[in-house]
# Entry
Amino acid sequence: MTKPLKQGAVIGILGGGQLGRMLAVAASRMGFRTHVFEPQENPPASHVSDLVTTAAYEDTEALSKFARSVDVITFEFENIPSEALNIVEAICNVLPARNALKTSQDRLIEKEFLTNLNLTVAPYANIETEEDLTQAIKIVGFPSILKTRRFGYDGKGQFKIKNETDLKNSWAKLKNSPCVLEGLVNFTKEISVIGARNQDGEVVCFDPGENLHRDGILHTTTLPANISASQNIDAVLLTGKILNALNYVGVMGVELFVTKDGLLINEIAPRVHNSGHWTQNGCVIDQFEQHIRAISGWPLGDGKRHSNVLMTNLIGSEVLDVETLSRDTDVGIHLYGKADAKDGRKMGHINKILN
# Structure
C-alpha cells in the first residue's frame, strides 16, 4: 500500500489556468497546500493557491527551487517542455508519469499506442514530407482532417480537407510541420469518460458524458449520455485498459466517437478534463478531488453520480449573463477569475441539475 501524503503536504502544479485553479481548490479541501508554477502573471490558479512562482519554463533555477518546495508535482496541461520536466523530475516525483505525456503530446504516438492496444481509432497517416502527402491520400482519402501532431487544442491546428489542393494548402498554412491526416468519422455522437487510477492500481471511472462542440470548443456535456448499457460498459472498460497500460496515476479524459460499428477513440488527455466538470455538482467526489487523491496516495472515490447534469461552458461574453444564471437555484456556477472576456476564451462553466 502506498503511504498517503499527510495534511499540510504541498502539491506542486505546473500551469496556472482554470484546471490548476480547480485542482488547488480540491487540494485545499483535503488539507493540502499548493504551489503553482506559471509563466504568466496573475493566472486563475494564483487566486486560490498558497504559493505561486512566476517564471518561464526555461528558468532552471526557478524550476529547481519550485521542485524542492513541494512533496509531489502534477500538471494541468500536456504541453510542458521536456527540458522543464527533466529538471523537476530529478528532484520530485511527477504524476502522472512522463510516458503518459509523451504519448498524448504527439498525435501519431498516441494513435500508434492505442492501435497496439487493439483499440479502434480513425484511419490515419503521418505527414512529414511532400512525398507523405501522396501516400496519406491513398491511406485515408477524402474527406479528412489534417491535424498538427503537437500543440493542437480547441480546434486549433487543424483543417478539414476535401481534396488534394486543400491538403497541400493546409499543410503550407501549418508551415509544413509534422501532421497526421485523419479520416473523417461518421459518428452519431461524441462521448467522454473521465477515469482515474491511483498508485496502488485502483481504477475508478465516472459515467460517460455526451459532448456537443461549438466552433471547435466544447459547449455542453450532458449526463447521462444517450447510449446503450453495453456502450457504457465498453467505454469504461477501454478507459481502464488505457490507464493500466500506461501504469497511470491521476485522472485522464478519454474522448470517444459512437459509430454504427462501435466506439472509436478520438484522443486521450492525461489530466483533469473540461468534459468532467459536471462531476463538481453531480458527484460527492469530483474529478479534481479524485486526481488529488490519486497522486497523494489516497483511496479513490467511487465516482457514483447522484444527479443528472448539464454542464455548459461560458465562452467570452457569455460570462456576463452570470447574474441571470445565478437566479436559477438548480445551477452551480464556476467562474475562473479571468479579467478579460475575449472571444473563444473559457471564462467559466455552469452545472445545471436536471432531475
Q: What stands out?
A: The mean pLDDT is 95. The domain at 189-353 is CATH 3.30.470.20 (D-amino Acid Aminotransferase; Chain A, domain 1).
